[in-house]
Every structure is written in C-alpha cells, then in structure tokens.
Amino acid sequence: xxxxxxxxxxxxxxxxxxxxxxxxxxxxxxxxxxxxxxxxxxxxxxxxxxxxxxxxxxxxxxxxxxxxxxxxxxxxxxxxxxxxxxxxxxxxxxxxxxxxxxxxxxxxxxxxxxxxxxxxxxxxxxxxxxxxxxxxxxxxxxxxxxxxxxxxxxxxxxxxxxxxxxxxxxxxxxxxxxxxxxxxxxxxxxxxxxxxxxxxxxxxxxxxxxxxxxxxxxxxxxxxxxxxxxxxxxxxxxxxxxxxxxxxxxxxxxxxxxxxxxxxxxxxxxxxxxxxxxxxxxxxxxxxxxxxxxxxxxxxxxxxxxxxxxxxxxxxxxxxxx
Length: 322
Hints:
- This protein has 322 residues and is mainly alpha-helical.
- 62% of the residues lie in helices and 1% in strands.
C-alpha cells in the first residue's frame, strides 16, 4: 500500500489523542492488513503513537505487537534484535531528546519478552526510561501506579532481559531508584510486593543460586515463554520459604526446564552467608536517606529471617531496623 494511502487512512485515527478498540480493528483490517512490512509503515505507526499515546488497552497491545513483530522478523535469523535495529528503535523513541511514552515503553518490554536475544544496551536504555516515566510524570508527584508495576514486573522477568529470570544488580539498582523517587507517595500496594520480592530474589543469587549464563538461560526459553508460568508466584514461593524455599521453588519448576536446570539447582546448594559486597551494597542503598520506611523494614525483616550469619554492615542495619 503506498505510503500516502496509509497516511490518508490513519489521519482521522487518534485525532483526539486516544485510539479506541474500534480504531485498532480498523488498523488491523484496513491499514496494516499484512502487518508492518517496511520502515515507512513503521514510521507511520510511531507517528500515530506520538499523536495518540493514550487509548483502549487494545491500542497498547496492538502497537507493541505490530512494531515488535517488524523488528524481530526484519533480518535473519528471526527473533534477534541486532545493535543496528535497536539504534533505529532508540532513534524513534528518543528523538529530539524526548522520553518514552508508556506505549513505547510497553514496546520495549514486549521486545525483551519476545526476542531470543537483545543488545545489552537495551536493558540499560529501558531501565532509564522507567526512571524518567516515574520521575517526570506530568500529572501529580512521582508514584508507582498499578500499570507501572505490571510493566516493570514484565521487564524484570523478560526472557531476553538483562538477566533472564534472575534479578541483576542493575535491575535491583533500578528498583531502589524508583523506591527513592516514590517512597513518600501513595503507591499502588502491588509496588511494595514487587520491590521486596525482586530485591530479595537478587540477594538470593548471593545466598546460593547462581544465575545461568545467557547461553544456558536461552535453553529455558520454552519454559519462560510458557504463559502458565507465574514468575511473581515463583519468586513469592521462594521468598516466603526463606533460604530453604529457594531449592523448593526451583524444584517445582515445570519439567520442560529439563534436567540441566535441576542439576544447576543442586550444584548451587545454599551457602550460609550473604556475600559482604552485596550486603554492603544493600546497606548503602537502604541507609541512603537516613530513614527506614515500611518497605525497607520489610526487606530487612526478610534478611533477618534468612538465619544466615550476615556481614557486619548489614547485620548492624538489620539490628537498627528492629
């Protein structure tokens, strides 16, 4: 379809800044019936997202689906986002120094969920866009609403993300950055739950679980993509069971993960001590503003419940929060 025809067809869509579910049906059937097939059509889709970043849920889903499918099938082998493709995507999102809208951030997360592999720089870029989205919210003070939390949850557990199902140091830093931006706000209750469990999951990596290298993690691709798996529930079981819960949670993974994963769990038998380096990092982040809020106290209570011999700096912090 000639570009001019596409521009004409979508001119009236999103004129009020909102794309409805009916508009999405129109886009699917009459504008991008064959999907987004070239960069000119991709540019038209992004232009519509810039004009109308708001809409029914179907609009955000369709935008992420159509744009992600274009990038992941543009070059062989399909499913890999190359550095060049990410640079092209970043130029669309960050043109003229603007931050990603929520709908564009949703695309970044969808790509990390769907892709076999993404450039390392993409995780850092996406994390920064989360910070900017929360910090520069146009209505009201910075806060974590339910939509923010759900999108962040998907980012943390995306299979092609920074650490696959493990929570990396960089992701834990992002969690603390968002916490410091919003600790005094009226956040959605789901934020405290995600923060505590995800930071705890990161620390668990230093209490016995060794995150798989990216090459090995990709072997778990089918399990991670299985929509019946609940990563939050998985980590919830892990955290609620303390140290002993780690092995139990991993043993309860679907058998599709294979014997290799089971062997890794056994090989990563629980250590009795949190590493001093990670403990110092946690102590520094929690003590940054000189106060303990409810979320930080809950996290320290979890650390106390590990029953491990904590390094001095963290042990003193846990005692202080008691």
